[in-house]
Amino acid sequence: MNELNLSKSKYCRGKMCNKMYWMDKYKPEENKSKVSPSTFENGQKVGELAKGLFGKYEDVEFNKDLNIMIDTTNELLKNKPNIITEASFKFDNNFCSVDILKNDEDGVEIYEVKSSTEEKDIYLDDISYQYYILSNLGFNVKKACLVHVNKNYIKHGEIDIKQFFIIEDETEVVKSMQDDVKTNIEKLNEFMKKYDADTEPDVDIGMQCETPYKAKCDYWEYCTKNLPKPNVFDVHTLKASQKYKLYYEGKVSFEDLLDEKMSNRFKEQVEFEVNNLEPKIDKAAIKELLQSLKYPLYFIDFESFMHVIPEYDGTHAYQQLCFQYSLHIVDHEGAEVEHKEFLADSDDDNFMRHFAESMLNDMPKSGTMIVYNRVFEETRIKELAEMFPDLTDRLLKLLDNLVDFMVPFRRRAYYTKEMEGSYSIKYVLPAIYPDDPELNYHNLPLVHHGTEASETFLAMKNMTSEEREKARQGLLVYCGLDTYALVKLWEKFKEVVEE
Ligand code: SF4
Fold first, then answer.
1. What is the CB < 6 Å shell around ligand 1?
2. 284-498 has which fold?
3. pTM
4. How crowded is the C-beta side of 105, counted as CA atoms within 13 Å?
């Protein structure tokens, strides 16, 4: 008798790391997952859309009492051939709901829907687990497939779901994983018998904490709470595999790493922090950067959001859609700094066009466009240029003289210990202006980072006019600080080359 009550997600998490399963059960309050509401909502919308992939379907409604879902499924299974969504099954206390089940006369087909644009190993675990349950219940599982989003599908009019989704047949690989599923379930059972609420498992951190989502596990803070600070995992951009290698060798604190053979870049971070070194500034490189600037100087920053299911014609899944910019302008040497900005009306379906037109209007002369991390703004401008052929030439012209203020920090032409190996503006700005409350993102009233900006903009559609006004102010102040920060960096560059 299986003592676990597994589900698809519990099986996948437990397979990744047994301790994660234990934490989910006994210490869920330590989960520091930061899934944004829009990510969750997007996933749900994709699931709903995919239900219609094979035409008419019958849905098994969610019920906390899983037995009700199983009973409903059993009734619907009698009406074959039919399509059942969220069809629910249990074998030996292992429960699953199949996103889409094709229930044919001669067997069934499983379709697992993901809002991702590509196949990942963890999805195969998910499908294998469902295959395991259904085949053990005696179903002839003819096919087991992954359904994911097609990033190359461009919306024109109604969404064509046959084009929007890609179906990958995973039957053979899933069949080959069946022995592993059985073993994993058994191992997880053994593990949970051994460790109860009062007996915390002694599982060391490892590569399982990074995979499969290339982000740290939700319990990372808890599992590393006894490590010294800073530690090897704070060494910026060192590969995860190298970090764990050093960790297993007992080289954990920055002091432990001082004599370690690492590339200069990583070593520099460690040495600066342990030895409290003075800032390093390559004046020649900064001077060269300043000399490349031509007036007028346009300090600009964009804010954007994305939808998984494209809502606007000419866009694709996960496309970043710009709704706001802030622009600080210095027209000529010695001129006062001016500020211009654009924030779309959340009810305006043509906001990208208005964004592009306003930007061209606000930057009439050929000067220098200054950004932080050019890839983002450059890509967005190229996308707009493609969407609006009559604006293409003028938009692309903006890229003629694009200067990225991130470069000197990325190349460590300007480095201080407070940057902690990072060149993100969120580290660079407080490192250079440590005590300036005006430049402190934490002091902002409503919006403090890009994700909050897009969440706020998307939420505005459903706000009262008073709430909207508050949200608009929050967005304007946040984006304004992003470009004011660029102006302050420019001033600092001028100051350091003159010293
Ligand atoms: S942080 Fe690592 S060891 Fe801790 S629960 Fe997560 S995956 Fe397991």
1. 17, 19-20, 23, 203, 205, 208-209, 217, 219-220, 223
2. Nucleotidyltransferase; domain 5 (3.30.420)
3. 0.88
4. 0
